[in-house]
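Exercise 7. Predict the joint structure of the components listed below.
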Amino acid sequence: MQPRDMMQTVHPGHLRWRKWKNRLFAGVIFGLALLAVLPLLLILAYVVFRGAPGVSLRFFTSLPAPTGIPGGMANAIVGSIVMVLMATAMSAPVGVTIGLFLAETHHARWQNMVRFVCDVLSGTPTIVIGLLVYAMVVAPSGGFSGFSGSVALAILMLPTIARSSEQVFRLVPVTLREAGHALGGTRTQVWLRILLPTARAGVITGLLLAVSRALGETAPLMFTAFGNQFWSNNVTQPTAALPLQVFTYALSPYDDWHQSAWTGALTLVAIALIINLFARWVSRTRR
Amino acid sequence: MKRRSDRVLDGWLWFAALLALALFMAFFIMLGTESRASVLRFGWRFVVTSVWDPVHSVFGALPFLYGTAVTSLFALVFGGLVGVCTAVFLVYFVRGWFRSWLGGAIELLAAIPSVVYGLWGLFVLAPWLQHTLEPWLGRWLGFLPLFQGVPYGVGYLAAGLILSVMILPTVTALSRDVLLAVPRDIHEGALALGATTQEMITHVALPYARSGIISALMLGLGRAVGETIAVTMVIGNRPEISASLFAPGYTMASVIANEFTEATTHVYLSALYEVGLLLFLLTVAFYVVARLFIRGIAKTEGNV
Amino acid sequence: MLSIEIKVEALHAWYGNDEVLHGIDLAIEPRSVTAIIGPSGCGKSTFIRCLNRLHETNPGARVAGHVWVGGEDVYRMDPIDVRRTIGMVFQRPNPFPTMSIFDNVALGLKFAGVKDRRRLRARVEESLAMAALWDEVKDRLHQPAMSLSGGQQQRLCIARALAVEPRVLLMDEPTSALDPISTMRIEELVQNLKQTYTIVIVTHNMQQAARIADQTAFFLDGHLIEVGPTSKVFTKPDDKRTEDYVSGRFG
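Solution:
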């Protein structure tokens, strides 16, 4: 057998073609990666440029007004905050507990089922969550309400909180738990005194991301909180929410309402970005 | 011996876990019960006929199924391609702070509320499509039925593009993680044979990561199918089936969003619940398929 | 044999700011086996990875100096050409898990532009035969490469490297993950292959070096301490440190 007999018969231009193909590939990849960043930049730019002119004290302090009269979205902002706080209060204790169940117990079959359910629920269309809450809460209680809106948001947040806390609990070294048990702690004491404090930053990060998602959701509120043009100081009444208000105004025929929609969108994006950056900062400073 | 505090804690853990399972069952039970009337009345005709007439209480959901299929497949192909290529870019062409910065920027796309995508799609993207892209596509590719007809701006194309952007973070982040997990010695094996970067990626790395990438695409598809608000704002909301991407259409999620509060008769409500049930079953199915592919990865790795 | 196949001059290598090779000079004759020995972390793997320019693909890695193979300066050639001239076998068998046995061996040829099925098949058979694997796999060429045992996988990787007809074969501790019988087969194989190829093998197993190498080079902390005919390095080394290492006093 003579080495190198065959390679010489390969067309000498072949390597040039391969290198050209390699460069073309790199170019296409680079181009598509740019294309991926473009929408983020465009959306942020438009939201800032179209939204900023409408930013004023009035926008954050007054009620929506008919077209032609300057108004604001104060009730929607407050409604969003109230509903998300209620949703967090319902969802966080249960979600973190599910995380504990998934990370710390030894019921493999049940854990797999719960994990599967959480993953499916986190991919469930939010509009379908709205349907469920309508059937379970709104229809029996006789009407749209802020409370039903927060139930929908709580269902939306639950799987995110559960899976993120599970992952955080799993990161806590076994040795810490063993040290706790070696000191004579009961399981409850070890979990409450050692596990939860150690995992706190990570759990909070997961909560913040869930809150950020809930604040921006429109679909699950459409047939639960429903929206409201006035102050609602009662969670059994229809309640306004910022994303719902943006949606309504965007689809209206009036230019001044469109302006309000852009300003509302700017507010939503600002809140989402601040919470996300804050969440990243929390998770980074603790590690 | 079990402490009482531990017993209480166990009870609370089981309560939370069972609550999650109950919630899951509730979707099946409630959506099933509420859509009963429609299922019994229309049977299979519900998914194969296309007359949606609330006045005469005749409901065929085919236009919505079609709209959901067209827009999410568009997003799967276009957003999926861009997403996977971006993941390749992040893993093989950049390193260090730029990689994390760019990856972080794309993950921020997931933080933008969907109503903001809708707003942008309606006031920025749709007019651009109507006046620039659609006439241009019509001129050069008009021989295809996909690109024929009057440019409306709002329609399948607008919805597909918005959905492509919305599934990008999911597809990119998951594919990136899968590619980062391809062992270094597999890469070096290819390089040592004299492979170019492109050959190493397309012949060795992508086939190795195939199941993970498919599962990323499936999760992206699930997201596209269920997305409501942004699509409702840009799809045009017309319950008709058109071959042209320029035409307005309707999706399953957006018909629920638009008509649910206006549905007056029992059977109308029930029909909308049935659309919701189908939507729920679809996303469950996509998730299960994605999981099967993830299991596929575990198998390949077990053998190495 | 007075000609020189591989010539290395003042070769330095870095990982980030850590210099891991401090100026290596070495000459290797054609159709010979050179063993690189030394304790873990002495730079022996880095050294052979500099020969086919694989070192520089690590993030932050850097190389300076000269390597000539067959009279051509490796660092002035295209890295892709370099790696086609110099084959490499790795520490852990790394067949491409998604491909069949056949496709693993044929991949390098496909990269090189060989499209003719008959020629591909002939070359795959030839390479598998050279790697002493043909008889074991000829009836299942299209089964997944991962269905082979560890020793067979490593011989498959050797066949894969040989298929593109390199001049030089680099082996980075090729038997460290294998059982004694597979190890023996690979050692026999090396003896046969040296009639055609120039082989550089990194090993942490001194008996292995003694058994198969014509020339042995001893590395310590990124320096080439001593190089010479294997029998001399193992029985009458010039340097005290070499003597300590080969007699097992450290490492």
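Discussion. Residues 1-9 of chain A have pLDDT under 50 and may be disordered.
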